[in-house]
Amino acid sequence: MQSRAIWRGFVFSPNFPGTVLELSSRTVPGLLRHSDRILSVIPTEAVFTGYGFSWGNIVDVSAKDRDGYPDANLVKVSGDSKVYVIAGGMKRHIPNADVFNDYKYKWTDILTVSAAERDAYPDATLVKTASSANVYHLASGKKEWIKTAATFNSRGYKWTDILTISSKELATYPNQ
Fold first, then answer.
1. In the chain, how many domains are there?
2. pTM
3. What span, in angstroms and rounded, lies between the C-alpha atoms of 46 and 42?
4. Containing domain of residue 48, as a range?
5. Does 176 fall in a domain?
6. Which value, to the nearest 10 degrees, does the dihedral of the CA atoms of residues 160, 161, 166, 169 take?
7. Residues 39-70 pLDDT 10s
């Protein structure tokens, strides 16, 4: 099973309910599903089959048919108030409504997904702000400043896993 949507591209279209539409011209291949007015990446084959989708329902679709539907980047699980942003193939919990609003997100853009879909994304644990080169490790709701590149590298972290967050969001995490 592959994860992080690294295989063929598909889109689920409101024009063809219950079908899976192949989108071969997608620049970042991935599996997408349509829900209301947004598309969301389906990160694994297990999540795909868990929604009851079938590989036998695949129909070709052009990029034009996909245009006009933004990709979902805000998700939550039914019955759970936590909202996550999906970025860089990882999920990050938005700690409160002030931070959510600071990003200018819209509450109506939150897509309800299965717990399996949410959990298929690893947690984003390395963050920085645009105004500083300081990198922090997030764990158990707290932040730890990684003071040197040597420390960063010795822990086996990847520089490509660092996400940029707002100063307001970073301030919500107490120091370890």
1. 3
2. 0.68
3. 9
4. 10-66
5. no
6. -170
7. 556 666 777 777 676 666 555 555 666 565 55
